[in-house]
Structures are given as C-alpha cells and as structure tokens.
C-alpha cells in the first residue's frame, strides 16, 4: 500500500537523527509565553487516579477484579520499621494517562520516525530511537484548553474537525499558537461502549493541528474505537503521532480543568509534563500539571 | 522502648485523619510565592535518568548486569503497526528518584502517622492511610536550593547541621520560609561506598527544618549509610519523615540545578512534583521540576 | 503464649540442620515399595489446570477477569520466526496446586523448623532454610489414596478424623505405611463459600498421620476456612506442616484419580512430584503424577 | 521462499487439529515398556538447579548479579505467622530446563504446526494452539540415554550425526524404539562461549530421530550457537521442533544421569515430565524425572 502523498508529514523536517518531533516547536519564546500564564500557583492534575490491583490474589489479599493499569506487590522488607513495594505498569492502557512515544506506531512499510527500520529500533531490550528518552527530563510549554463539551458531551460518533476547534477558540477568546499544547475535552472516556460509538479526531482536525503548530495533543478522547467512517480512520495515532511526530497523551483527565478554567475565565496555562525519568519506553505514565 | 519525648513531633498537629503532614504548610500564599519565581519558563529535572533492564535475559535479549530500578518487557502486540511495553518499578531504590510516603516508616511501637496501628494500615493490598494517595495529584510549592557542595563535595562522614544550612543561605542570599521545599546538594550519591563513609543529615538539621517549616525535603543525600555517630542516627527518615510527617525525595539529581542556579544567580524556583497518579503506595517515582 | 506440650512435634528429631522433615521417612525400602506399584505406565495428574491471565490488559489483550494464579506476558522477540513469554506465579494460591515449604509457617515464638529465628531464615532475598531447596530435585514415594467422598462430598463443616481415614482404608483394603504419601478426597474445593462452611482436617487426624508416618499430605481440602470449632483450628498447617515438618500439597486435583482408582480397583501407586527446580521459595507449583 | 520438499515433515500426519506432534507415538505399549524399566524407585532429576534473583534490588536486598531465569519477590503477608512469595519465570532461558511448545517456532511463511497462521495462533493473550496445553497434564514414556560424552566432552564445533547416536547405542547395548524419548549428553552447556564454538545437532541427526520415531528430545546441547556450517543450521529447532512437531527439552541436566546409568549399567528408564499445569504457554519449566 503506497503512502498517501497528500497526508501531512514531518519526516525529515528536523533531520535524520531527530527524536523530538513537534516538541521542536517549543522554543524559548514559547516557554516564556507559558511562564507568563503563571499567576497564583494553582495547579490542576490532568491524570486519571489509579487504584492499583494487588498482584497477589491468593490467601493474603482480596481476589482482584478487572485489572488496573497498575499492579502492586507489598514486599517483605525483613525489618519491622519500614515498608516497601513494587509496581508493574501497563504503559498503554485506556484507564492510565500516558504519553505515547513516537516509536509506538510503525508505518505499513515497517519504518518508524523519521525513517528507520522498526526491526532495528524496536528490540527486546527496549526502543533504541524515538522512545521515552527525549522527553524523560520533562516537557514545559503553554497549554490551551479547547472545551468541546462545554454544553455537554459530544454526540455519539461525532467526527471532530477543525471547525469544532475554531468554534471553541471563539467561545473562549483564545488562539492556539505554534508550540502550544492542545488539551481537548469531548466529555467521553476512552473505554469503548458497544452501544454508543465514540466521537473521534478526523484527518481534518489533524491537518488543522499541523497548520497551527500544535506541539503535543492531550485529550479525554482521541481516535474513536470503533473507527469513524472517515477518509483516514485512526488519524490521531496514524497521522498525528506517526507522520507528524506529535506526541500524544492518551486518557487525559479534563473534568477538573474544565471547572477551573470556567471559574477563572482563563483557558491558557503553563503545562508541565514530568514522567518518571525512564529511557527507552514506547510510552510512559504521566501526570500533566496545568499551572495558573 | 519509650519514644524520646524531646524529639520534634507533628503527630496530632493536623488531626487524627491527616495524611498530608508538613504538606499542610503549603498555603495559597506559599503557592503564590512560588508562582512569582516563574519568569522565562526554563525547567530543570531533579530526577536521575534510568536505563531500564530488560526483564527477559534469555536468548532474545542481552544478559542483564546489576538490576536497574526499572525492568522493562517489550510486548508482543499481535499487530505489526504498534509497539507496547510493561515496566516494573522498585519504589525504594537508591538509584531511583522517589518520594517516600509517610507510611514508609513505622515507629518502634508499631504505629504509623498520625497514630494508627501499622497492622491495619499496611496490608498486602497496599497502604490504606498515609501512602501515595494524598500527593498523587501533584505537589506545587516554592523550592529553595541550598548548595552545600558549592566548593566541592562535603567531606566523608560529615555531619550536616543547621549551621551548614544557614551558611548556604548566607552565601546565596536566600531565606527558607514556612511551606518551602528544601533542596540540598552534598556532592554525593546514595550508593554506599565501603571505603568512604557518607555524610548525612543530623538531628540538629532536622530540628532546624522543623523550626523553619520545611514542607518537603529533596537531596542527593539524606541519611548516611553506615549511620553517622549521632545522637539519633537515621534522623531524616526516623524523625523528619516519621515524627514530623515530612515527605522525602530520595536520590534527587541536583547537578544540573546547581549549574543553572549559579548561572542565573537565583536559588529559588517553582517546584512541581507530579508522580504517576497511583494510590496506596509506600513510595512513588517522581521527576521534580524546578521552573524558573 | 506457651507452646502446647501435648501437640505432636518433630522438631529436633532429625537434627538441627534438617530441612526434609517427614520426607526423611522415605527410605530406599519405601521407594522400592512405590516401584512395585508400577505396572502399565498409566499416569494421572493431580494438578488443577491453570489458564493464565494476560498481565497486559490494555488495548492489545482482553480485559482480565478475576486473577489467575499465573499471569503471562507474550514477548516481542524481535524475530518473526520465534515466540516467547514470561509467567508470574503466585506460589500460595487456592486455585494452584502447590507444595508448601516448611518455612511457609512460623511459630508464635518467631521460630521456623527445626528451631531457627524467622528473622534470619526469611529474608527479602528468599528463604535460607526449610524452603523449596530440599525438594527441588523431586520427591518419589508410594501414594495411598483415601477417598472420603466415594459416596459423595463430605458434609459441610465435617471434622475429618482418624476414623474417617481408617474407614476408607477398610473400604479400599489398603493400609498406609510409614513413608507413604497420603492423598485425600473430600469432594470440596479450597475456594471458600460463605454459605457452606468447609469440612477440614482435625488435630485428631494429624495425630493419626503422625503415628502412621505419613511423609507428605495431598488433598483437595486441608484446613477449613472458616476454621472448624476444634481443639486446634488449622491443624494441618499449624501442626502437621509446622510442628511435624510434613510438606503439604494444597489444592490437589483428585477427581480423575478417584475415577482411575475405582476403575482399576487399586488405591496405591508410585507418586512423583517434580517441581520446577527452583531454590529458596516458600512454596512451589507442582504437578504430582500418580503412576500405575 | 519455498519450503524444502526434501526435509522430513509431519505436518498433516495426525490431522489438522493435532497439538501433540510426535507425542502421538507414545502408545499404551510404549508406556508399558517404560513401566517395565522401574525396579527400585530410584529417581534422577534432569533439571538444572535455579537460584532465583530477588526482584527487589533496593535497600532491603542485595543488588543482583546477572539475571537468573527466575525472579522472586518475598511478600508482605500481613500476618506474622506465614510467609509467601511470587516468582517470575523466563520460559526460554539457556540456564533453565524447559520444554519448548510446538508454537515456539514459526515457519518462514508465517504458519505454525500443523498449518495455521501464526497471526491467529500467537496472541497477546497466549498461544491458542500448539502451546503448553497438550502436555500440561504430564508426559510419560521410556527414556533412552545416549551418552556422547562418555569419554569426555564432544570436540568444539562437532557436528552431531546419526553415526554418533548409533555408536552410543552400540556401546550401551540399547536400541531406541518408536515412542521413546532421546536423552543426549554432549558434555557442554548451552551458554555460548565466543572462544569455543559449540557442537550441535545436524539435519542428519534429525533425520535419524524421525526414522526411529523419537517422541521427545532432551539434551544438554541442541542447536549450536553460532550455527554449525551445515546443510540446514539450527536443525533441532527449525526441523525437529517445527517440521516434525517434536517437543524439545532445552538445557537438560545430564551429569547425574550419566553417573547413575554407568553405575547401574542401564541406559533406559521411565521418564516422567510434569510441568506446572499451565495452559497456553510457548514453553514451560520442567523437572524431568528418570525413574529406575
């Protein structure tokens, strides 16, 4: 299957060694713009809370229900005055707020961004290029919240387009600039419901993000499952993440953010993303902070 | 063994249900003070980078060396266009920057803060009180960096006291106020070296933190291993964390911070700590961000 | 609490270094007796089948139900011509057939068999004495099946006594000799049912096992949960395993064995137990084989 | 790439649903032949002993060296009178004695035995056909030990052929019959040594196994790494396991067996393999027992 030449694409834009993708758009000027949004130090978490499942389901712990993204083991420390534990985390889980690395997606021709064979990059010992390493130290930029659910959740199977984003900009009196992170509320969760098809991001919306210079996408929803009937289903992962090299935060929690933005009448903030500083992953749990 | 009545103690100060400990000192005013430190959006990570070990050491991955704090498993996703992985994290590991929860330490009488039996609180299904839950959404305050190693690493076995902190305040022309986080550089790592006993925090230093109202301690070093010859060995964990209910960030990376502070001539910043939002843990990996 | 002097006890019987407990009763003569039971090479498994749960419950695998004793991770091998996986096993799980090591139980005075402090034996790096090591190479003896459920499951809360065992011996025309393994069917599973209290082994039954010289106990049931109203609740684990140092196989599958024994009219067989040869565990999954 | 028509092949021999492969050769008559080898109940383990690595490498356990095939976590049980643990096992590990399932290997055309697409059979939720399930209840047959190292280890890079097997038969005065398991000693371990290329099984040896009707292969060595210069490198895994559907036990321990066989002057025995009874795996740890 030939790659569609008309799809937006950033492969090669920042060189053959690049691992940052659209994070290259976050310049010193963008960071200074973010800094100017900080006034009283109020912070809002954009992560879903996670109750871990005990990995042990035998006689010493309750039998577990459906698996959490996190499993916890309480350890025998051998000393009565200290406690300790281990956690095992499923990096790509629909109930865990996580950042997708660029090498999470592979092109049909077997290549990963910005043009390397997946067979060399994706190894049993981790991702050698375009993994979590380039953003392990943290990401800071301006966040702009576009609330598509200000009047209630989007309709089932609604195809999200540029028009939805621009309508929100108009309502909120903001404008997304190059290097900003886009934070979206659809009023849905990422858990599929067979009765009610999800809304989702269309290729039209991805083209708009590309034109505006979005550095990072965060949303309570992204690609619809099942896919929308669209010219390019799964456009957020298959075009924005893969072709544009735009990192995504899946399963973002935006309810408290919506409340605070409405209360303050402000839809821009400093956005800080500081994952555990682990290299070589395909994705990593994050707790994005919106600071006002 | 009777508890030493003269040790500083916060048990009961914020009530019988409290789980925040000294984080209660972070008021709106403290947060606003932190916000005023943000000028150009430059961020510095205070976390050590971690190269995970592949959990699989068989024919498909290299044999592992000494264990990393993080083990990674690359997954068979069943589809050729996506990659995924799992990580297992040792929460208390001397090469992992992590936040100690209040219930990480138990008093000799079997109680955890603020006076509950460890047998009820610490269960095979996780920590029921004083675990990671109260800071899972994130912590934001002003950070003050006291660089005790500006002229080189502290001497071996040096007992760190209030005088060291106040000397640094004088050199840097800063003053640590109630609610601030204290970030310390000793110029040492937490990996024990049998040849060179570590420096460490003394009870005198902990008393000073208590008087100043430190909300949170971060340091490249904390308690010395082997313990210092001190009136109360292990004072950071056994008095500050346990008696004062002051959360600690073990194994903080402060090298880049020292460089940036010296370059800017500024030793205060907005400190944001946003761990993966997981409840019920005894400790959690963090990537503290100092924002200037 | 003083130890009950009248309870049967093997501490010291085989010396201060012993790790075999009642497996010492399996002499060459006992093994030869076992060998004589082998006629046509028919083998019956006494292990419950286990369907592992995928550890990954995200977008690439079905969400898991209640946790299995075994979790499986299918690995990315990096080569298209080979598959591989990892398993994580909960050693003491009521739906996993497993052998309890002697150090699985600790006396109220803090000692493990044959009189060592648990604080020295049970460490974060595994069990240093009386763990899985002494039987890791395998156990072979004669098995005797006493079918207490030949006429249907035992009544709810039935206290199993020596009389039950001797009645079965009479029905089956067998006699359990010193060194034999005792295999018991009660017609119950080890999963507690709040509506129907389980039957269970009494101290009287344990005394009988001691007098007969049982080397090893295997049963579909053992100690009742909730405990029987008995002179010594939990006698199988707290007296047979702990005081007598008699290894136990919890959650033994005996349905097929009952069918085969009835069909052949034979209730004795060669019993082979060959766990994965792993040292230092508190318990280990096993698949006991009854060979006729 | 067309499959080589002249390679020995059992695909289709036992039907389109078969999962047993050459285990189909173990008839009642073969089992009775195995039973006749049992005389005094002496058992020898053919598994390598495994010292597990503590998964926890932090302040409460020693830092780990090179990873073991097994990692152990000692658990906080919440009660002072019982201990428990978890193990994580790498199923295909060169220092772990394990049984390879038929679906461990995939043909270049993407099919697994006996002609199913790997994309359907090998899923993130385990192996759906030709995994550990068909031998989870246990395998019993006659074992024949061919000691190729009776006069010392095979020479480096020695290509093992039918002639080696027949010479051993002659020395030992045995003959391998249809349905028997073949147990081989080369005097080497499976850990590659760059200085000394391993000996290995050739296609000629595999053809001989096929003609004789070997049901199962166990050896201290199998395929050489690096591969022999052979007409078909890796013939044990790529022809015997994959084309013939002959399960393999990798990393078999044969030292004690060699001693016992020489002492008894007997090279045939009852072989019992009873893995943990876990379904759907690509491989499983085993502790084969040779019973005399």
From TrEMBL, chains A, B, C, D:
Entry-linked InterPro entries:
KFase/CYL, KFase_sf
Q: Which Gene3D superfamilies match?
A: Putative cyclase
**Record-given protein name:** Cyclase family protein
The species this protein belongs to is Amycolatopsis ultiminotia
């Amino acid at each position: 299957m030939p790659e569609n030449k008309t799809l937006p694409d950033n492969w090669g834009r920042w060189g053959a060694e690049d691992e940052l993708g659209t994070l290259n758009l976050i310049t010193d000027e963008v960071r200074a713009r973010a800094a100017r949004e900080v006034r009283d130090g109020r912070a809002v978490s954009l992560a879903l809370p996670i109750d871990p499942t005990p990995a042990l389901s035998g006689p010493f712990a309750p039998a577990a229900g459906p698996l959490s993204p996190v499993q916890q083991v309480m350890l025998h420390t051998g000393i009565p005055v200290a406690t300790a534990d281990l956690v095992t985390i499923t990096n790509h889980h629909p109930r865990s707020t996580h950042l997708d690395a660029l090498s999470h997606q592979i092109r049909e021709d077997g290549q990963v961004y910005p043009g390397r064979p997946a067979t060399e990059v994706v190894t049993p010992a981790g991702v050698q290029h375009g993994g979590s390493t380039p953003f392990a130290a943290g990401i800071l930029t301006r966040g702009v919240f576009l609330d598509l659910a200000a009047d209630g959740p989007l309709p089932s199977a609604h195809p999200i387009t540029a028009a939805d984003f621009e309508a929100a900009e108009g309502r909120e009196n903001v404008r997304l600039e190059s290097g900003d992170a886009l934070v979206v509320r659809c009023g849905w969760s990422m858990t599929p419901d067979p009765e009610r098809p999800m809304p989702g991001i269309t290729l039209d919306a991805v083209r708009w993000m590309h034109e505006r210079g979005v550095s990072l996408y965060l949303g309570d929803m992204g690609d619809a499952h099942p896919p929308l009937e669209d010219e390019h289903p799964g456009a957020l992962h298959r075009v924005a993440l893969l072709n544009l090299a735009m990192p995504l935060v899946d399963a973002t929690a935006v309810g408290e953010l919506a409340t605070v933005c409405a209360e303050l009448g402000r839809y821009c903030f400093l956005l800080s993303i500081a994952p555990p500083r682990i290299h070589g992953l395909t994705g990593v749990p994050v707790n994005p902070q919106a600071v006002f």
